[in-house]
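If you are new to this repository, start here. Below is one unmodified record pulled from the training split, so you can see the exact layout before writing a loader.
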Amino acid sequence: MVPVIALVGRPNVGKSTMFNRLTRTRDALVANYAGLTRDRKYGDGEMNNRKFIVIDTGGISGDEEGIDSVMAEQSLLAVEEADVVIFMVDSRDGLTSADSMIADHLRINNKKAYLVANKIDGQNHDVVTAAFYELGLGNVYGTTATQGRGVKSLMDIVLGEFDENVEDLTDDQARGIKMAIVGRPNVGKSTLVNRLLGEDRVVVYDQPGTTRDSVYINYQRNEKDYTIIDTAGIRRRKNVKESIEKFSIVKTLQAISDANVVVLLIDASEGLVDQDLHLMGHIIDAGRALVVGLNKWDGLKSEHKDFIKSELERRLRFIDFADIHFISALHGTGVGSLYG
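And here is the target side for that same chain:
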């Protein structure tokens, strides 16, 4: 899997500018689910032929009631998802109490972090970075994200932590066409996986965001090998009650990167929403074959079906190359057509 890098720090230290610099775009996949008090942006980056996923988090101002307050905790959820953290501070503001609080959190959680003093243009690098060594996170790297100064050398060091020659065992064990099932929480991904496999291999539970690990499942159909990449992990039912947790977009992005074909599952009862379009754009940008499945189709009234079809025709003209299927993962209606 490609490494995941989270950008954390106070507001206005340049995280979003760094995000745009690393992804070379102003676009991002935005996590805007209920219960997330601040959006997190997800995007793909590539440098020196090394691919990575970068997460831009909401700033932590230090006005919260400690690092474990709801606002701060939601902003730092990306730290849990990440393999490594780029902790950004503002070289012009100097060291602040909020910087110290974030540094303490990273140390307590034993998270690998690179301390970056941003906005060093026009200043003496050694002078402006000296104070930040007090945070005890090792070297301080100077950058100016707006101009790209120091960014390449920083990323050479960060990405150097990951041995690109280490093979992904999960990928090695995959057989045939790799098909990722992706979509928003509770659209029926696990139900569809179970239907395609013909058995209950993944837990199905009527609660959004109950699972967050990708699972590779090999199987055969009509003497052809397939590997389903399910973006929901296998769980024992006794653990499901503990799973009021975030939907891991990172796992979805990794599954898309690793797949040959991506089935984007959409809840037909809710219609097409912005998050579906964000995911669709990411699949297209990744150059993967796209199949769109409108799930829960059986239970809809005819007028709603007509409305959904007209909306699809209006909003999805740019993907006339993709197959669109109306299915019911629960009852099996139209599921076989996904292989077409």
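Two things worth knowing about this chain: The mean pLDDT is 78. DSSP finds twelve helices and 13 strands in the chain.
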